[in-house]
């Protein structure tokens, strides 16, 4: 996790757990409403009294004296004699102090008007208390002062309670629930106390380059596919790889992991495609000599391949390179499946292989399995510049730590971890894909079908489509089949010099 999080990353993290956030928000709002309903409502009644009605203005020489007189009369309202007489008159089931806390007196600025406010459990009771308090105040003040007080506004109570406010409390509880759920989602996403890892433990302590979705085929990194959340995930991983490792031409990256489900091979194919789109002239080498699938993903012949290069000391690697449907990306297939892969991956053969890869000048990615033994991966990792461990937090629990420990015994440091997890598209992704597909259909309908070029040279219409660019998807049809275009025959030397 970086020290600075942008709003886009935070929004994406919350959106990925939208169901959790929405559920917690709804539960908090309902809980706030239910709790509010359990609280006894409080009603309020008010009445107004004109104090010191018979005071001669000549007797009060300044405004301060008049104000002090009004405040003194206001204190008499909440005095013990008035409160005690009110409790006895109405037979209230509360003490004098309780009634005093529920009674307030305000003086209207610049006047001698006292506003009495009383709170009670019902509007009728609040109105009765306000009325009796005003009456007891007038009676008590008549005994202790010659000033006369008069009720100018009778006691009146509103039918709506002043507290609690159910609407406000429900919204407030929902907002608090949303903030708490969002905070939990961010903590689960970034885990700031365990920087560099998404999950604690299963894949080890190496730095995590990111998490990408798993699939059964490579991603189509095309302009028509953007915005693609899956493509953006690989773009972020690609940026972190370059930032953390400083990948340059002539460097070799080893992508190692289990073969189950093809997660490692598809991740390697996607990373190689990202390097091709960046103009790094990558070469993808399928080093899975037992269960290779790279030739199936890119629809190229499986042989001759790496096995033939390792068994023929005089062979050249350039002659084994295959063009792919991604411009700038070449593939060295595994060749014929070999049961003696451990013998073929001997140190002399590997030294010759890595020297040939570095001589090609571009970035080389090696797709290496981690199924039979860690020794074969360790032999390749000792010679690679970058080692990336690919795995699933749920399916490869314990494998990462064990692999990293065994590679460290062989003197190899794992550069980082790439987490591959299956996931369902979020609601935002579904909406983006839905409206994106709809807008493309509307645009195509408005433009009309493209006109076929005249077949003046005796070529079939559409022959120009035989050479794909980096904008062409690896999967050319919606049924998941990968297209391999026909290409004119050329030597491997010509392919690399291009």
Question: How would you sum up this structure, described in words?
Answer:
Residues 193-204 and 452-498 have low confidence and may be disordered. Helices cover 44% and strands 14% of the residues. The two termini are 39 Å apart. The protein has three domains: 7-39 and 165-182, no CATH class; 43-157, Alpha-Beta Plaits (2-Layer Sandwich); 196-429, P-loop containing nucleotide triphosphate hydrolases (Rossmann fold, 3-Layer(aba) Sandwich), CATH 3.40.50.300. The chain is built from 17 helices and twelve strands. It has 498 residues and is α/β, with parallel strands linked by helices.
Summarize the structure.
By secondary structure, this protein is of the alpha/beta class.
- CATH fold-level assignment of the largest domain: Rossmann fold
Count of extended strands: 12
SSE series: HHEHHHEEHEHEHEHEHHEEHHEHEHEHH
Sketch the major β-sheet: 8 strands, mixed
Strand adjacency order, main sheet: 5-12-11-6-10-7-9-8
Helix vs. strand class: alpha/beta
CATH architecture of the largest domain: 3-Layer(aba) Sandwich
Report the CATH C-level class of the largest domain: Alpha Beta
Query: Any idea what the radius of gyration is?
Result: 40 Å
Helix percentage: 40-55%
What percentage of the residues does DSSP assign to strands (E)? 5-15%
């Amino acid at each position: 996790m970086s020290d600075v999080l942008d709003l886009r990353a935070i929004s994406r993290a919350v959106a990925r757990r939208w169901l959790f956030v929405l559920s917690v928000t709804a539960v908090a709002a309902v809980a706030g409403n239910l709790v509010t309903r359990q609280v006894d409502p409080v009603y309020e009644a008010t009445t107004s009294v004109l104090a010191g009605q018979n005071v001669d203005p000549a007797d009060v020489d300044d405004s301060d004296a008049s104000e002090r007189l009004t405040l003194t009369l206001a204190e008499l309202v909440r005095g013990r004699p008035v409160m005690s007489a009110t409790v006895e008159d109405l037979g209230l089931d509360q003490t004098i102090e309780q009634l005093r806390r529920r009674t307030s007196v305000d003086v209207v600025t610049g006047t001698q008007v006292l506003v009495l406010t009383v709170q009670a459990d019902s509007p009728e009771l609040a109105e009765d208390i306000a009325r009796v308090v005003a009456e007891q105040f007038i009676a008590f003040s008549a005994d202790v002062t010659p000033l006369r007080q008069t009720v100018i506004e009778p006691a009146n109570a509103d039918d709506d309670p002043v507290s609690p406010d159910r609407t406000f409390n429900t919204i407030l509880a929902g907002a608090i629930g949303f903030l708490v759920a969002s905070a939990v989602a961010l903590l689960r996403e970034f885990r700031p106390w365990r920087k560099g890892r998404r999950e604690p433990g299963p894949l080890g302590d190496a730095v995590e380059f990111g998490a990408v979705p798993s699939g059964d085929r490579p991603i189509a990194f095309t302009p028509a596919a953007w915005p693609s959340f899956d493509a953006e995930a690989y773009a972020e991983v690609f940026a972190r790889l370059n930032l953390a490792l400083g990948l340059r031409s002539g460097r070799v990256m080893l992508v190692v992991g289990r073969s189950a489900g093809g997660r490692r091979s598809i991740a390697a194919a996607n990373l190689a495609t990202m390097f091709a789109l960046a103009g790094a002239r990558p070469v993808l080498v399928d080093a899975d000599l037992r269960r290779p699938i790279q030739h199936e993903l890119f629809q190229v012949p499986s042989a001759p391949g790496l096995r033939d290069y390792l068994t023929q000391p005089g062979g050249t690697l350039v002659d084994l390179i295959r063009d792919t449907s991604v411009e700038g990306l070449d593939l060295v297939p595994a060749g014929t499946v070999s049961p003696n892969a451990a013998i073929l991956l001997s140190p002399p053969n590997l030294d010759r292989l890595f020297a040939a890869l570095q001589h090609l000048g571009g970035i080389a990615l090696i797709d290496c399995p981690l199924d039979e033994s860690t020794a074969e991966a360790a032999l390749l990792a000792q010679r690679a510049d970058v080692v990336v461990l690919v795995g699933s937090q749920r399916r490869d629990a314990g494998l990462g730590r064990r692999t990293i420990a065994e590679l460290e015994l062989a003197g190899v440091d794992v550069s980082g971890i790439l987490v591959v997890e299956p996931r369902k598209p979020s609601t935002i992704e579904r909406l983006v894909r839905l409206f994106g597909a709809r807008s493309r259909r509307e645009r195509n309908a408005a433009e009309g079908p493209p006109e076929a070029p005249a077949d003046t040279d005796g070529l079939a219409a559409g022959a120009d489509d035989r050479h794909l660019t980096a904008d062409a998807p690896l999967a050319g049809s919606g049924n998941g089949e990968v297209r391999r275009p026909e290409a004119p025959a050329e030597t491997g030397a010509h392919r690399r010099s291009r």
